[in-house]
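Support reply, case 0932

Customer input (verbatim):
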Amino acid sequence: MGMYDYIVYSCKCPVYGDIVTSFQSKDGDRMLSKLKQYKVKNCYTSCDICNTWIEFKTIKKDKYKMIEPDMTLVEHLTKTEMLKLITHDNYFIRQYCQYKLMSLIKGE
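Our regenerated output:
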C-alpha cells in the first residue's frame, strides 16, 4: 500500500449528492499529512454510498475543476436510487439513469 496525504476538502458527490470528505493525494510529501487542496495538483476519493470516483484538478490557488465521474460506476444502483438521479443537475448522470431505467423496463 502506497503512502499519501489527507486533503482537507469536502464537496457533494456528483451522483448521489452526499457530502464526501475523505480526499487523498500523492502530490505532497506522502507522510499522511493534512494539506489544503490548493497545495496539490489533484486529489481524489470515492463516495461511501455509491462508490463514484471523484477527482479534482487544481487550476489556481482557489480554482478547482472536477473531472467528470465515470458513469459505469453507478451501474449497481437500485431502480429507486436511479429514479432519484433522473432529476440530477448533471446532464450525463440524468441521461445515463434514464437510459438504464428504460432498458430495465424493456427487459434488455
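We compared this against your earlier run and they match. Two observations from our side: The chain has a mean pLDDT of 78. Strands lie at 5-12, 19-25, 34-36, 42-46, 53-60, 63-67. Please reopen the case if you see a mismatch on your end.
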